[in-house]
Amino acid sequence: MEELVVIGNGMVGHRLVEALRDRDTAGHWHITVVGEEPRTAYDRVALSTYFDGATAQDLSLGELRGPRVDVHVAEQATTIDRAARTVTTTSGRVLPYDRLVLATGSTPFVPPVPGHDLPGCHVYRTIEDLDAITASASGARTGVVIGGGLLGLEAANALRLLGLQAHVVELAPHLMPAQIDEGAGALLRNLITDLGVHVHTHTASTAVEPGPDGRAARLLLDNGDHLDTDLVVFSVGIRPRDDLARTSDLKTGERGGIVIDDTCTTSDAHIHAIGEAAHHRGTVYGLIAPGNAMAEVVADRLVGGNATFTGADTSTKLKLLGVDVASFGDAHGRTPGALDVVVNDAASGRYAKLVLSDDATTLLGGVLVGDASAYATLRPLVGSPLPGDPLALITPDGEALGADALPDTAQICSCNAVTKGDITHAIECGSHDVAELKSCTKAGTSCGSCVPMLKQILTQAGITQSKALCEHFTQSRAELLEIVRATGTTTFSALIDAHGTGHGCDICKPAVASILASLGGGHILDGETATLQDTNDRYLANLQRNGTYSVVPRIPGGEITPDKLIVIGEVARDFDLYTKITGGQRIDLFGARLEQLPTIWQRLVEAGFESGHAYGKSLRTVKSCVGTTWCRYGVQDSVGLAIRLEERYRGLRSPHKLKSAVSGCARECAEARGKDFGIIATDTGWNLYVGGNGGFTPRHAQLLAADLDEDTLIRYIDRFLMFYIRTADRLQRTAPWIESLDGGLDHLREVVVNDSLGIAHELETAMARHVDTYTDEWAAVLNDPDKLARFVSFANAPTTPDPTISFTTTRDQPVPGPLNLGMPTPRTHQQESTR
Amino acid sequence: MSVLTHAPATTDWVTICPQERLEPEIGLAALLPDGHQVALFSTRDHHLYALDNLDPHTGAAVLARGIVGDRDGEPTVASPMLKHVFSLRTGQSLDDPHTRLATWPVRVHDHNIQIGTNPTTHASTRAEQGTP
Ligand code: SRM
Ligand SMILES: Cc1cc2nc3c(=O)[nH]c(=O)nc-3n(C[C@H](O)[C@H](O)[C@H](O)COP(=O)(O)OP(=O)(O)OC[C@H]3O[C@@H](n4cnc5c(N)ncnc54)[C@H](O)[C@@H]3O)c2cc1C
Ligand code: SF4
Ligand code: FES
């Protein structure tokens, strides 16, 4: 066995180890990886999603486990002894090698302006950098990014997501100078300014000045102006990390980078360099695709192959602050004699340019801003004859190119160098959905922009992609709903016998329960329906980690009388329940044992409370501010409307939970734009926003219709909710549902406001049926001995408390005692709902 | 109603409840004299099953409240806590090869449901856990 040492556990170092592990079936190599970051490799390309809810765990590229792989993190390689062929690390480890790979990446360049190292000055490269930015941003209002390139704009978006007013300062005359031309830059600037980011081009930063607390407080500009700011992010470029190579006298490029030949070998035949640290034929690549290609070459050579790296495509496509930008091939038209075809439509916010060979027959490159949907088909055509009139390819109503126009050699996934031929081959070998194609070819696993193309190629190969709910039903949730509606089916067993297989599972049963309930199927615990419910619905309460339940009475609009508050207090005291005000403007009582639920609810129902459906995929709360009743700014009665809405939609079963809020003026104290449907008062009526949520992937709701009177508002909400219930997927909240509609929000507006499908009346009738038949689920259980009989601790000892449940006291309240089995791990990595 | 017959010869039986108390696919918890908590199920095709009520992944005694169904034809219950799925027949976790619940003999006797006091698979559970 020979020793391979890899310095750097970034994206490219990781790819090398994976690739070698796959190829080295003979077990020839033992691999040792040394990485200086405190964690194993993660997806740096997706780094910004960290601000959008992704965790370090989500970003991780996975463990490099294996009998012949050792990974040391939080450890830096400090010297290479080329004569002895050893590497020394900060922990004193001396690692002998037969081959050494430098995958050290690069560091952000920080220009030496005075004040560049003050607290509050940051770079944007690692998870630790992002944590530091988050810490600086807390309590801050303004942030400046220096550098208007690809990364700078990503950083500006991050600042926006952190709630800061963002500025971008760029030296060049336009944004993203490395990728796009001036015309595109001008349009991009408009689009980004519209989003509230201040753009300062043609401007140099001359110094960062501290405030009284010693932190960065002001950025001086070369035009004599300044920007007051709470933090600064430098994003003016990167420098290859070639320090180790320099001190061990390996050949480096004039402007940095470890020089490699086409076999990715440095000036020492035992040492390779790959990724952003490498300098190949005069170029240092700052993208993942060339790095991955180099990793594959080295892996191939280590097992005796003769692959070479001869250069790579630097095409990019990104969605910055919601604006599509793409550039590919010779975007700047540097090929002698190159011709441009440009469509620049400032009104619709689109810019497109194609660069053609001097005889206008071959596509050389292009730039797209505002709408980059043509990117997936155009990029693979670079170097090929044009399939049609160039102008038609980039005008909105022009001929859209499909995957079938592409030759087999066209690269579909540029991140991972996968051609159309590779993909059709994988399909022939049995990969029949996007997930399989991803794992078999690696296409689509990096930036994801080629995924729509993968779907197209699958469809062309005659493969219909499965929308099966689970192993028991080949139909999607929306299809099952249509079947239930059309056939009048009222039970799960009838449905699975006629349209499915087997006995069902924890996926299809609750989904069908929700369908039956939203079509007006009676009490959710009636007969067989009870067996379909997830445990929260089955016991009309939320299961806690120790097997007890929480109790959440409905408090519409957050408004409650002192008498009712006292009842809640008395119940909590008498049953010794932990009590907490929730984020949904109501009160949650925790720690009730299964057999206590009926007695607790008996007291609550007597006092006039009803179920809050905290357990159901259904309407939760309609939050509200105080509005005109008390607030000196209020322009409408927000509490009154919130209560009317909560009472109208309570108990409505839906594909996922539904939340709403009403604010009495544009100050938005009720956070309506964070809700599935949110309403904000205007001087003349109400604005309706849809598709907002917090949770894993926070979204702001978007305006659906403005200045509505109350009756029109309610009609629109009826239609919106019923249309969602009928067509959404299981556990799909409103935001992703709207995105999944062909035509998105505009289509939804057509359906809801203009009744483009002619179903508005039917949707309203269905909602009216729900409103008319609503009854309180808990009151119904208390009146039904059969249902009550299920609320026992043990069949043979109905009132004996579960002996495994214990409590301790924290801050004067009972909380679950220690668990006997350590921390739980959920069943799958796939994001599953918890209730 | 069919009855499981592979109980050890010397089994003592504990009466839990009248037969009609156990509705199809709605589990019930039972407390054995030795303190073991058992989750009791009857499936739609009238099979009776009894296994640990304790969810091994979280330590909460909740399995009886899980959804009953099947995976590839194997009758299952999904723990309500984190949705791990177990075979009702063998107690084997279908998501984690190293986890297996104990199962108990169960029968209908004189219109009552009875559980045998000795688990059917405890011994083999330990043995199987030992082999990697
Ligand atoms: C009690 C409460 C926390 C609190 O003390 O404030 C809470 C507690 C739970 N939340 Fe929540 N969420 C609570 C407000 C929120 C909010 C804030 C809000 O509504 O204003 C959010 C973000 C807003 C949103 O939903 O868009 C929130 C986002 C979630 C999510 C993520 C949803 C998503 O789309 O990503 C889950 C998981 C899920 O539903 O799948 C969740 C799930 C849960 C569950 C049900 C987890 C579970 O199954 O055990 C917790 C059960 C509580 C219980 O037993 O009663 N909770 N949860 C809040 C109850 C509000 C209420 O009165 O009903
Ligand atoms: C926010 C952001 C967005 C990006 N977006 C895109 C994109 O959309 N498309 C795209 O193609 N590219 C993008 N990139 C660039 C892409 O992430 C890099 O090209 C890629 O990560 C390079 O991989 P690498 O392994 O060469 O370097 P790195 O991922 O930087 O890994 C190098 C690793 O080596 C470690 N190291 C260095 N020296 C030593 C030493 N002496 N001892 C031990 N360890 C050491 C470093 O700490 C680091 O962990 C983006 C980068 C960032 C920061
Ligand atoms: S949203 Fe407007 S009306 Fe409501 S409390 Fe806030 S400021 Fe007052
Ligand atoms: S093009 Fe980036 S993942 Fe395929």
TrEMBL record, chain A:
Q: Where is this region: Disordered?
A: 802-835
Tell me which residues make up the NADH-rubredoxin oxidoreductase C-terminal domain: 315-382
Catalytic activity, reaction form: hydrogen sulfide + 6 oxidized [2Fe-2S]-[ferredoxin] + 3 H2O = sulfite + 6 reduced [2Fe-2S]-[ferredoxin] + 7 H(+)
Annotated keywords:
2Fe-2S, 4Fe-4S, FAD, Flavoprotein, Heme, Iron, Iron-sulfur, Metal-binding, Nitrate assimilation, Oxidoreductase, Thioether bond
Q: Where is the BFD-like [2Fe-2S]-binding domain?
A: 412-459
Residues covered by the Nitrite/Sulfite reductase ferredoxin-like domain? 544-606
Give the Gene Ontology MF terms in alphabetical order: nitrite reductase (NADH) activity
Uppermost EC category: oxidoreductase
Q: Domain Nitrite/sulphite reductase 4Fe-4S: where?
A: 616-753
Q: Which cofactor does it need?
A: [2Fe-2S] cluster; siroheme; FAD; [4Fe-4S] cluster
Q: What is its EC number?
A: 1.8.7.1
Give the matching Pfam families. Fer2_BFD, NIR_SIR, NIR_SIR_ferr, Pyr_redox_2, Rubredoxin_C
Q: Does the keyword Signal apply?
A: no
**Does the keyword Oxidoreductase belong to this entry?**
yes
Pathway note: Nitrogen metabolism; nitrate reduction (assimilation)
Family recorded in the similarity comment: Belongs to the nitrite and sulfite reductase 4Fe-4S domain family.
Provide the function of this protein.
Catalyzes the reduction of sulfite to sulfide, a step in the biosynthesis of sulfur-containing amino acids and cofactors.
Protein name as catalogued: assimilatory sulfite reductase (ferredoxin)
| Phylogenetic lineage | Bacteria, Bacillati, Actinomycetota, Actinomycetes, Streptosporangiales
Automatic annotation (TrEMBL), chain B:
Cross-referenced Pfam families: Rieske_2
Q: Which residues form the Rieske domain?
A: 13-115
- The UniProt record lists the keyword Iron-sulfur: yes
Q: What keywords are assigned to this protein?
A: 2Fe-2S, Iron, Iron-sulfur, Metal-binding, Nitrate assimilation, Oxidoreductase
Molecular function per GO: nitrite reductase (NADH) activity
Is the keyword Transmembrane helix assigned to this protein?
no
E.C. number? 1.7.1.15
Query: InterPro entries of this UniProt entry?
Result: NirD, Rieske-like_NirD, Rieske_2Fe-2S, Rieske_2Fe-2S_sf
| Protein name as annotated | Nitrite reductase (NADH) small subunit
Give the source species.
Nocardiopsis terrae
Instruction: Provide the taxonomic classification.
Output: Bacteria, Bacillati, Actinomycetota, Actinomycetes, Streptosporangiales
